[in-house]
Design a protein that fits this description.
mainly alpha, 3 domains, 7 helices, 64% helix
Length: 149
């Protein structure tokens, strides 16, 4: 609910705004969600993947690798989802096989405050094109390899 006499400025001598002006200005404001942005998220995920590969070659039994994978990936995804404006506890879905791809895709593509704008920025659209091209190439290679066998 918006108060009837709400104003946008703190100056007591300024003329009052109408309620429509107040609602319009309120709708254009963007909240800051905190968390981490897209590039630091990508860097942290790449470092964790490299660390996982190093630990997997050093210890093939996989005990410590499982802990790094299981616990280490939750924190960047948690803070990235917070930055997007989603509920950060969706990070628990990175355990589920297909849902982890969808959550990771959202974390990679959506910009900060996506929940407020519902529009992708230019970098997000470029990432979608790159990922779509890679998926198309993998699909094409799978079809070619299945036909040649």
């Amino acid at each position: 609910m918006v108060e009837k006499n709400a104003t946008l400025v703190t100056n007591p001598y300024s003329p009052p705004y109408s309620q429509n002006d107040y609602l319009e200005a309120k709708a254009t404001q963007v909240r800051l969600y905190g968390g981490i942005q897209r590039l630091p998220y990508l860097g942290i995920i790449l470092v964790l993947i490299i660390l996982q590969a190093i630990l997997a070659t050093a210890n093939p039994s996989g005990g410590i690798v499982l802990i790094v994978v299981f616990v280490g990936f939750f924190f960047p995804v948690f803070y990235r989802l917070k930055n997007i404006g989603m509920n950060p506890w969706w990070c628990l879905l990175i355990i589920v096989p297909i849902a982890n791809i969808l959550i990771g895709f959202r974390c990679l593509v959506f910009q900060e405050f996506y929940k407020d704008t519902k529009k992708l920025d230019k970098a997000g659209r470029i990432i979608i094109y790159i990922v779509s091209g890679i998926i198309g190439l993998i699909t094409l290679l799978a079809i070619v390899s299945a036909v040649t066998l």
